[in-house]
């Protein structure tokens, strides 16, 4: 067995490129290019006559070398407040009860959707989905308007208990059923 490594052959890429260029039939290529140019719309021909020289010019012009910023910035100290109490020292978190015996009110602003009203008042989106299922054909939830009053009560677990939409002369009330769904009263 011959274990000698075979020498890699040196390729003269310049001569290879010259051979490929000399093999091109320039007259035939010129005629093909002219026929394709004639197929282009006049607007495209004009655009190419302007854009091609501009692109070539931009490729040839060297870009200015930006000098690195030699100015050094002094380090600054920033005060950060850090909670240094351990979890055992902090104790139980103090939570406010979510239940409210009174109605909460929200006046609809221009461009508001009911989903935005729910988000602004931290109401569960699952309750909004349940309300839409029982909305009815008059669509009071889908057609809220700027200036309309939305009143609601929240249960102790943070879910919506009642929702009332007031228009100029009439009011629509949605209330939670024992199965967790909603019903509508006019």
From TrEMBL:
Superkingdom in the source lineage: Bacteria
Regions annotated as coiled coil: none
Official protein name in the record: Lysine transporter LysM
One Pfam family per UniProt: OapA_N
Molecular-function GO terms, alphabetical: peptidoglycan binding
Record domain LysM: where: 104-152
InterPro entries per UniProt: LysM, LysM_Opacity-associatedA, OapA_N
Ranges that cross the membrane: none
Organism name: Vibrio panuliri
Alphabetical list of PROSITE patterns matching this protein: LYSM
